[in-house]
Every structure is written in C-alpha cells, then in structure tokens.
Specification:
The protein has about 210 residues and is of the alpha+beta class. It has helices spanning about 5, 10-35, 60-75, 125-145; strands at about 10, 40-45, 50-55, 80-90, 95-105, 120-125, 155-165, 185-190, 195, 200-205. About 30% of the residues lie in helices and about 30% in strands. The longest helix has 22 residues, at about 10-35.
Length: about 210
C-alpha cells in the first residue's frame, strides 16, 4: 500500500479521535452559546474552516477532558452504541431545561446478526469529506441558538452522563443515564456525519414552553 493510501485509511482509533475532537468543540460551543460559562473564559480558534469558541477555564476543561478521555478509550471497542449526554439545568430551580445527546453508532455492528461476522475495522472514506460533514453539523450547532430557549437569568449548571453497555465499566460516581427529566420535551436533530466506521447523530432536547418562536 502506498504512503498516501495509508494516510487515507481510517482505523477505529483514528475514527474515535475524530469523534472526540468533534464532541470537544461541539460541547464548548454549547457552553458558550447557552451562557453556561462566562464568555470571558473563552477564546476564539479556527477549526473546520470556521471560528469556534473554546473554554480556557481549568475547571471546565478538566471536567470535560475526563469524559472525552474515557470516550476515546472505549470507542475503539466493538460497542454498537455509545451515548454521551450534556444536560443544562436552571441554577435557581435545579430543573433540567436542555439536553444535548451525542449518539455514536458503530456502523458495522447493526442488525441481529452482527456478532456472527468479522467486524470491519478500517474505512477508506475521504478525510476531507469527513471534515466537511463535521463542519456542516457545527454550523447547525451555531445556528441552533435561534430556536432554543432563552437561558435563565440566574445561570446554568451542567452535568454529563455516558451510556455504554453494562459490561463496559464506567468510573465511580458517573451516571449511565441523565437523572433529570425535561418537562414538555421538544427535539431538534442535527445533520449526522460518518467516518465510515462510526456514525455520529447529535440531538438537542429542550423545554417547549421556554422556546422562542421558530
């Protein structure tokens, strides 16, 4: 195989790295746009051919990085689905007002017979095409502020949960499912993208009564 051909091969590990990188930027953009953290804590970077906001606050970065490091470890495993939840709660009431779900599906591990065939572990999908698909999803995250609830005046708290199969251990104190339901939920599904091995679907759920007019 030529050197250029090797560069275009996506492995389970490199696919995981692409998805974790997307979640890092996506969650940072949510924290910025939804006024979860003070905007002065963010810096502007250029990625995916567009300006993005990234927190420089140590506490925020550490909380997020712990989850992302775990996801990068388990994604290369042969797991059909992994869900990462970011829940936003009104600081004054403790009520969940918005939830971002990042659903990762191993595209080869679908259907009732997936355990009976040899799994696919590489993809030749063009990396430039993957980056463009991610860029389109990031643009939708940026635009989503126009149809999501106005952030509560007393501020927002955020929590995370990671849903993996029971046979996959999670760190002590973590949750596999969000604990707080959202009243009168409405959903907004964003454009999915694929690495050729994993598909990422991003969905935001929010309280209907607090939503702006579309």
């Amino acid at each position: 195989m030529s050197v250029s051909g090797q560069r275009n091969v996506i492995t389970l590990s490199s696919s995981a790295a692409l998805l974790v990188e997307y979640m890092e930027y996506a969650i940072n953009m949510v924290l910025y746009q939804r006024d979860v953290c003070p905007r002065g804590q963010f810096v502007t970077v250029s990625h995916y051919g567009m300006p993005l906001f990234v927190s420089r606050d140590y506490t925020t970065l550490n909380r997020l990085q712990n989850v992302l490091d775990y996801i990068q470890q388990v994604l290369p495993l042969l797991i059909p689905n992994i869900k990462v939840y970011l829940t936003l709660k009104d600081r004054a009431t403790g009520r969940a007002i918005e939830r971002w779900q990042f659903l990762v599906q191993n595209e080869d591990l679908v259907g009732p017979d997936w355990k009976e065939h040899k799994p696919v572990t590489t993809s030749r999908k063009n990396p430039a095409r993957i980056q463009e698909e991610i860029r389109q999803t990031m643009k939708q995250i940026t635009a989503s502020i126009s149809c999501l609830p106005v952030p509560p005046p007393n501020g927002i708290e955020w929590t995370m949960a990671v849903d993996v199969p029971e046979w996959v251990p999670i760190p002590p104190g973590w949750y596999r499912q969000p604990l707080d339901p959202i009243d009168n939920p409405q959903q907004l599904g964003l454009r999915p993208f694929s690495t050729g091995l994993h598909q990422m679907q991003t969905v935001v759920t929010y309280r209907e009564e607090a939503a702006r007019e579309m």
